[in-house]
Amino acid sequence: MSEEVSLAAQQQPQGEEQNRNEQVPQSEPQESAANNNNQESNAPKHDQDVQMRMEEMEKEAAKLRELNSKLNTEVDNATSEEKKDIDSRSIYVGNVDYGATPLELQQHFSGCGVVNRVTIPLNKFSGSPKGFAYLEFGDIDAVNKAIATLDGSTFRDREIKVLSKRTNVPGLSSSNRGQRGFFRGRGFRGSFRGRGPRGRGFRGASRFTPY
């Protein structure tokens, strides 16, 4: 009697385990079907997001090209005296972080004086920042203060170099001056419109020479 009870007790779990094992495969196709449905439903949404981002980037690029064309025209039409005046109130900032924005640079130099214009030149082929910038102040005193106080300062975890900007003299090559060659890139990164003493906003320009 005891042996029969023991055998029955042993057989009962086996039967239950078989039932459980038989039920497991039935749930797997259901889970797979649910996952496939989720993936299919998420795919169109992902494609729409990518398309929207691409359209936004194309619109932004078109705006930058249009603004850049206007800026180049304004600089080309400026007289030599006007260019000298602008350059005398401008500085060259080297070792600028590639992710820096015109607004961040304006804020970094705001203690020196009114910033009329910030320019971050871009590589005309890749569109990447070149690692330097130009700032135009409202007066020459701000230039001197910027060089005296912020040359060697830390901006975005980088030690920047601040120098006065020199006027580009047509026909004078780098070998004549012993300095760096002309920069005539056509790109720029963003724009910052400050307000000068007479309320003139900065326009941003890209045809400058570092030295």
Q: Could you write a compact summary of the structure shown?
A:
Residues 1-59, 64-83 are annotated as: Disordered. With 211 residues, this protein is α+β, with helices and mostly antiparallel strands.
What does this protein look like?
The strands form two sheets. The protein has a four-stranded antiparallel beta sheet with strand order 2-3-1-6. A two-stranded antiparallel ribbon has the order 4-5. The protein has five helices and six strands. The N terminus and C terminus are likely disordered. It is 51% helix and 11% strand. It has 211 residues and is α+β, with helices and mostly antiparallel strands. The protein folds into two domains: 50 residues; 98 residues, Alpha-Beta Plaits, CATH 3.30.70.330. β4 and β5 form a beta hairpin. The chain is elongated and about 70 Å long. One of its GO terms (molecular function) is poly(A) binding. This is Piso0_001296 protein.
The portion of residues assigned to helices is 40-55%
How many angstroms separate the termini? Answer: 107 Å
Q: pLDDT under 50 segments (min length 5)?
A: 1-9, 171-191, 195-211
Query: CATH homologous superfamily of the largest domain?
Result: RRM (RNA recognition motif) domain
Number of helices: 5
Mean pLDDT: 72
| Major sheet characteristics | 4 strands, antiparallel
Note the overall shape: elongated
Count of beta strands: 6
CATH architecture level-2 label of the largest domain:
2-Layer Sandwich
CA gyration radius, whole angstroms:
33 Å
Structural class: alpha+beta
Number of domains: 2
Reading the helices and strands in chain order gives HHEHEEHEEEH
Across the major sheet, the strand order is 2-3-1-6
- Please state roughly what percent of the residues sit in beta strands, choosing from under 5%, 5-15%, 15-25%, 25-35%, 35-45% or over 45%: 5-15%
What is the CATH topology of the largest domain? Answer: Alpha-Beta Plaits
CATH class of the largest domain: Alpha Beta
Pfam families: RRM_1
Protein name: Piso0_001296 protein
InterPro entries: Nucleotide-bd_a/b_plait_sf, RBD_domain_sf, RRM_dom
GO molecular function: poly(A) binding
